[in-house]
Design a protein that fits this description.
By secondary structure, the protein is mostly helical. It contains eight helices and three strands; from the N terminus they run αβββααααααα. A three-stranded mixed beta sheet has the order 1-3-2. The longest helix is centred in the C-terminal third of the chain and has 33 residues, at 112-144. It is elongated, with a radius of gyration of 28 Å. The termini are far apart.
Length: 180
């Protein structure tokens, strides 16, 4: 915490109070709750670091919805900062999820809860990528059924009539597309 904070010109300190980021006259400080475990302190520091790097304003006077957004953003940032994908890719991970979570908790010095959240986040993104790919393949296969080769005789007759009207100048592409 102290090394990273020093490089970013942020004063970091610990007190017996909830963790928070403070900005005063362009200077930033982060209080980390010293009543927390070392791993929880690191996680709180990363959460508050997001507020320093990406947010502005005093949450005490902000609308609740904006505060909620900032907190969600800081929680997401915390996951990425605590267990970066670039570092994760270089590791040889156990196959069982509970062993993987325990390994990451130890390797990155984060709580079991955060390591589990990060693995679940990655799993959701992988699943979303698979679903996106399958949907793309499905829609592309559906487009082939709309080719002129697959049109019925009635559809072909209507399309030919529209094409004739366009050629005669009686209809623009836009007008023809509205009829379709």
């Amino acid at each position: 915490m102290t090394n990273l904070a020093a490089k970013l010109h942020i004063w970091v300190y610990t007190m017996d109070m909830n963790s928070m980021a403070i900005e005063k006259d362009g200077l930033f400080s982060i209080n980390v709750d010293r009543r927390l475990s070392v791993k929880e302190q690191w996680e709180d520091f990363l959460h508050e670091l997001c507020h320093v790097l990406r947010h502005s304003g005093n949450q005490m006077v902000m609308p609740d919805r904006y505060v909620d957004w900032q907190e969600q953003d800081a929680s997401a940032f915390q996951l990425y900062a605590a267990i970066p994908m670039s570092m994760l890719k270089k590791l040889s991970l156990p196959e069982q999820k509970n062993e993987m979570v325990a390994f990451l908790s130890d390797e990155f010095q984060v709580t079991y809860r955060l390591a589990n959240e990060r693995i679940e986040q990655i799993q959701r993104r992988v699943l979303q990528g698979i679903l996106d790919h399958e949907y793309q393949q499905f829609t592309q296969s559906q487009l082939s059924t709309y080719s002129p080769d697959n049109w019925s005789d009635a559809t072909r007759a209507i399309m030919n009539k529209l094409e004739q009207l366009k050629r005669k100048g009686g209809m623009t592409d836009r007008q023809a597309s509205r009829l379709l």
